[in-house]
């Protein structure tokens, strides 16, 4: 697939959104190291973010390809993990997006939408169980079959910034 090809089933562009021509070539390649199994087949059913998913308590399964099995020992000692995944059904060419119910367009790098030049998503998940190459976790917000990019330990001492701000995202009311 070339860089400019449309993603399968990607939603169309909305009024107020701005797209750009994607570069003609990729700068790097990556390996999908597994797949994420979730109950959600359609975007409308997916949790909107990791917090909504955590609050639902739904357990999802990360299936790591057997090739990478030896990369897993030690993971089971972590209560929480950072999971990186590839939003394979998102378009990649929007620089301004119109989130549902938004009154004005939002720039791509100011939002957590899966629509971005490199559709990489992340969630901090709670690890419930490890069985061979399968990890049961709570806190994912992706469609069933979403490709897995990486797994890292979450270090509260390093990663948590309790007083961090994102003023334009503050909840109203
Ligand atoms: C708003 S994003 C948040 C992503 C991630 N937690 C982050 O902040 O990096 C979550 C939404 O992406 C959409 N989505 C989930 N899996 C996807 C996939 N494989 N391809 C494209 N869109 C997806 C769903 O609509 C879901 O509610």
- Indicate the percent of residues in helices: under 10%
Strand order of the largest sheet: 2-3-8-7-4-9
Number of strands: 9
Compute the separation of the termini in Å: 45 Å
The average pLDDT value, as a whole number, equals 92
Low-confidence stretches: none
**CATH homologous superfamily of the domain at 37-156, by name?**
YaeB-like
Oligomer: single chain
Q: What's the CATH architecture of the domain at 37-156? A: Beta Barrel
| Largest sheet geometry | 6 strands, antiparallel, barrel
The structural class is mainly beta
What is the CATH class name of the domain at 37-156? Mainly Beta
Protein described:
This protein is mostly beta strands and 173 residues long. It has helices at residues 50-56, 156-159, and strands at 18-19, 34-37, 59-64, 80-86, 94-97, 106-107, 120-131, 134-138, 146-153. The mean pLDDT is 92. It is globular, with a radius of gyration of 17 Å. The chain has a domain at 37-156: Beta Barrel (Elongation Factor Tu (Ef-tu), domain 3), CATH 2.40.30. It is 6% helix and 29% strand. Bound molecules: S-adenosylmethionine. S-adenosylmethionine binds at residues 43, 46-50, 87-90, 112-114, 121-123, 141-143, 146.
